[in-house]
Every structure is written in structure tokens, then in C-alpha cells.
Amino acid sequence: MYYPYFIAYIAIGIVLSLAVFYWAFRTGQFGDQQRARYLPLKDEADAPPVKATRMGRIETYGLFILATIGIGATAAVLAFALYFSKQ
Hints:
This protein is an all-alpha fold. Helix content is about 70%, strand content about 0%.
């Protein structure tokens, strides 16, 4: 009865997840896996603070907007399902 809505919701989630994975892979987020295990042991107290670039701020705002849209879509699907399940 409500399967098309949930299937569409799941499909959109999978597509968004694959898009974010592709972005991470393309920008080199998985490039140096051997170094990652030593990062908690490295002391970087002497390093100067990193300034946020314009692209970094755009990515941060974009991810925040995507998260807000996702939470809103979840609430809309649940409200729709609950509203029509009582009828």
C-alpha cells in the first residue's frame, strides 16, 4: 500500500549515498589508508591552525543542507504514512 513511497525514499537515499561516496573517492579521501592508523598517535600541537577555504565552507554548507533535506524527507514520509494509516 505504501511501498512505492518507501521504495522511492530508499532509492533516493542510495543514490545520494553513492553520490557522496563518488565525491569522496574522486577528491582522494581514501588515498592514504596506511597513514590513517597513525593519526591518533601524532602530536600536532605545534602546527598552526588551518584556515578554512571557500570550497571547504561551501562543502560544509552543502552537507548541512543535504542533512536538513534528508531529515525533512524522513519526517514527511513518516507523517504521510502515519496520517494515511489511520484512515
